[in-house]
């Protein structure tokens, strides 16, 4: 039976005949040989070994989306799932400059940067299903030059978007036989790359399991992690109290002070790492074959003695004014959908914090969004980064930075260590904010490079 790509969520009631839509995701039958599984932790009781997430009990999920574990987890928040699905459907299935096989191949290249087996496997199946040349799946060396030249763009967008300059864009756009890119094609590829980088973070952040895989774990086991309780039982109370205090204070910091607070947060974020918990980087051959420069990653500034990213002043190139209109002009359907998706994720709230009801959580959500973009050097002039330290405690920051910058290092322990009183649905909600803030950060950098190229 041919694989049916689970690009759209399919509930049991929707289609019984799609019950095997996740076929070919099994490592044994995958077109990409040698796929290993993501880290599977065996010490956790009460977890359904076939549940969509390694971290979230099945009972917490909204319902079954057969074979589509991403939708099963996202489905806790239907409003977000809906706009996510619409955007992805547009990118992969609807009108666009790239051919269908090229779209799935770009998805594979993006997911490989974050070692996301789930997506590499899924899009390898989809690639074949839409008539892609099986030889390309042997590795990036077998793909056409036109796709291979995306390597630099892919690695910068995934790990260090601040390094993108107009020269990178100009190089791709210059006439070069059949291998040059049109602007429309390039925009399509850029949105695919950033979408799948961010989705890889989401998948690993929520511990989403590759469907039907009999996981043969060829990753080294995680080091034994301490079970220290980093959060007091009063974590939720503390956050609620901090938000109330910030609402009441209304203290106005000077411009200089605001800038200093951002720089401080940016520099300090360098120290926010999962101490002693980093496993040696190990690439599965199934991932490695799609990578050039696999060692290129988010910079660990302290170790390499490098500078933090230069500050990107968000008011000089905002999504609303610049990014959106540029995107809209180049690929209008996607510009519109991305805009809607940013808004849905930024504004989503249930007015709850753990068991507390009727809470205005906007400060907390904004701190989360801005902290992620701060890690990429993006600063909002009107935001007081001092709030980040009031609202986000260290274990939360460690998790956020790991999911965003090093998703392959996320462990169940990191997932459990923060917000211990909060619900799983709130941790999934957090992951939407991480996904979207990361996606928008990369887009802001690349769209700024494109617009400077045009002038
Ligand atoms: C990310 C979460 C803390 C969000 C919160 N539960 C809300 O409804 O706004």
TrEMBL record:
Could you confirm whether the keyword Signal appears in this record? no
Coiled coil spans: none
Source organism per UniProt? Pelobates cultripes
Predominant cellular place of this UniProt entry's protein: cytoplasm
* PANTHER family membership: P53 REGULATED PA26 NUCLEAR PROTEIN SESTRIN, SESTRIN-2
GO CC list? cytoplasm; nucleus
One MF annotation (Gene Ontology) recorded for this entry: L-leucine binding
Reaction it catalyzes:
a hydroperoxide + L-cysteinyl-[protein] = S-hydroxy-L-cysteinyl-[protein] + an alcohol
Q: Supply the name of the protein.
A: LOC443672, partial
Subcellular location, in the record's words?
Cytoplasm
